[in-house]
Amino acid sequence: MNIVEHSDPWQHYTIDDVLKKTDFGMIQTLTSRWQKPQTSKEKFNLCLDDFRFYKETAPFYNEAMVVKKVLYKLMQELEVEFSLEGKFKSYQIEYVNCGNDFYYPVHKDSTAKVFTNVLYVSQNGDGTRLYKDKDGQPEKLVDWKENRIVSFKPDSHTWHDYYSTHSGRITFNLVFVKFNISPDKPMSRVETDLTRI
Question: Which of 78, 82, 147, 155 lies deepest, with the highest CB count within 10 Å?
Fold first, then answer.
């Protein structure tokens, strides 16, 4: 992996062409058909570890398990690359599809997250903006690029936001978490944010 470390405005990493072209092409093709938000101001997210949700509500269960297998292998590689062995409990793989007028405000990731990786999937999308503080101006934009991962260790100053001006901004959040994933508690939500700027 060609990991590039960045220090401004806080420590984060980018990895380009992280998946093999064949694997990434397959993921891009399959996810282009998956669930979408119902309105332009919403996002649809779904945790691929939640088998029950897929079996009960989605026609894409088998495809999701193929994608999960590829991304699980990638997470095993990231675990080694970032020396995360023994520092977390579970992998969480989350599919996220944003409408073309969605905005997620400036935030820090949950303290349950040990290490966050965002894989940019769709051909078009808007990147991730990084801030020095919650009420400040964006200091940096991590540009959108297919098959790029943005990685960071969440802490008290890793402020960031994202927005979408393209229909179908698709990402996968590949997160190392402190808790065990339970397939008995469905995790799916559609989020709407009306503070679009």
Answer: 78
